[in-house]
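Practice record 12: protein with magnesium ion.
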Amino acid sequence: MAVRLLVASRNAKKLAELRRVLDAEGIVGIEPIGLDEVPDFPEEPEDGATFAENALIKARSGARATGVPCLADDSGLAVDALNGMPGVLSARWAGRHGDDAANNALLLAQLTDVPDARRGAAFVSACALVVPGGGETVEEGRWSGSVLREPRGKGGFGYDPLFLPEGSDRAAAELTSAEKDAASHRGRALRALAPALRALAERA
Ligand SMILES: O=P(O)(O)OP(=O)(O)OP(=O)(O)OC[C@H]1O[C@@H](n2cnc3c(O)ncnc32)[C@H](O)[C@@H]1O
Ligand SMILES: [Mg+2]
């Protein structure tokens, strides 16, 4: 029988990406379930200083509350000219959690006078797996690029319309899902976690 794996994200588009990458990895014996399939539990504040700490906060609380192995992602955009911010504050950069349009507008305004040569940035994802009684694993993935001067494309979510991946002539929001997953911070972090997920499936 398959091991249930709670994929703990309240961001529907991020959740879809996580499920897609898990699917593509073809890990036999894992059945991903969402937060809507387990009883409600209180959310803990994502107040860690790093993506890895926050990913662990989320995965630990999901595993503790449900007794089910839990996978969580914490991610964001680290902009060179802003000393790595918005970073762990990416989801609420303009003040209101998850307001992508306001976050993008504020980021653009902050970078108005930053020349093209200094608009470097990277998406970072930390993916954490916490198994009750079975340990914790965290893997990080990075996707380097730069911040555009105006939004382009309708795909993805968050800062994707403003992110030009290194070596690409299309913004992240102009890529197909498969193209984004192959290159993205989240795709890389989750693929690095695949051995731990396979071990979990085999243990059961
Ligand atoms: O914590 P959960 O419930 O998973 O959902 P969230 O949206 O709050 O997720 P985070 O706390 O990890 O914040 C991540 C933010 O960083 C940005 N971000 C992360 N990955 C991104 C991606 O692939 N493309 C564009 N923006 C991204 C986007 O603004 C997200 O809201
Ligand atoms: Mg969050």
